[in-house]
Amino acid sequence: MDEAEKHFQQGMKYYKTEYYDKAQGELFRAAKLDSTKPLYISYLGLAVARATSRYDEAETLCHSALKLMRTDPQAYLNLAQVYIWAGRKEDAVDTLSMGLLYTKRDLRLLRLLRKLGVRRPAVLTSLDRKHFLNKQLGKLRHKFLKIIGEE
Question: Which residue of 22, 93, 123, 137 is 20 to 30 Å from 143, comparing CA positions?
């Protein structure tokens, strides 16, 4: 394991145990030693947001990482989390929705969208969501998606 990876692993340990200041320092060292690893930069953005509440800086870090790893769901999750902490729910929803396009509908993105209160569109868009047919078809869709593992 190289030096940057050691700092990243230590930073993640600190992050998971909520020592955000220490995590920020370790993740900064990791990103400085190896700037080719976007995951280091993305998690540094999370740590900056938690440790200092500098959401603009955290957003910039997460965005720069996301540009380098468009198909990694974790990049979208990290940026969305920064938006949530900053009180920008709509931006978090937009980020997660964009992530679904690039990550082949990752379940973690779908779960966070649901946690934020985002619902699937009505099955029959020409009818009201509360219409009997939409309710029944929605239940069937839910059961079907659960069976095939998409739920």
Answer: 93
